[in-house]
Design goal:
The chain is an alpha/beta fold and 250 residues long. It is built from 12 helices and 8 strands.
Amino acid sequence: MVGLKARIAAGEGLLGTFIKTPHPHVVEVLASTGLDCLCIDAEHAPFDRRDVDLCIMVARAGPMPMLVRTPSSAPEAILNALDCGADGIVVPHIRSAAEAQALASCAHYGPGGRGYAGSSRAAGYGSVAMADHLAASAAQTAVIAQIEDVEALDAIAAIAAVEGIDALFIGRIDLTIALGCDSPDDPHVIDAVEWIVAACVAAARPVGMYVSRSADVPSWRAKGVGLFLLESDHAFLRGGAAALRRSTGL
């Protein structure tokens, strides 16, 4: 089976959603839905390492590719997610090529990079030879830099060119706030998003994004966006309850 990293690199149109509830049952349910991936939102939801570990365990049993949006770019946050067996990470607030290079280093093995533990789930709990695990990690770990700050806009071409970064992901809501706007549909925000997408296309770097309306996906797909992480388990619960209310007329 082709892994998530390879599918991102190939420019496939991929659809995933965010997991906001720190419980493996949510992942177990969504793992059977036919989505391309799930993304644990450890940045904005109350996930500790145990929660991340359990949710990834269930996703791997699915099997369902699992990304983790880490709470920060701290090396230990990246290490925790990858040792638990995540297929990749989405790391917030990458603002420069130097920060992107630091991210790539933390996410990969090598001098000054990710610490090695053969006892982790990612390494097969000691059942995988070091050389094999190193090769598999390099081939399968998707490293995604989230772009959501004004500072990143001037550096976007340099960020997109950093080796070891597999894709950029546009955090459109935080970018809206950073630009001093109150709507992600503000022309200034749209211009910034198009600027990021164009820089990624020029660098042959895959790009993903969040949009609030699924109807917007085809137009952004046509511009070169491949990975879409839309809605969340919370949104599905609220939407389902609202639809039930409407359908009953009660």
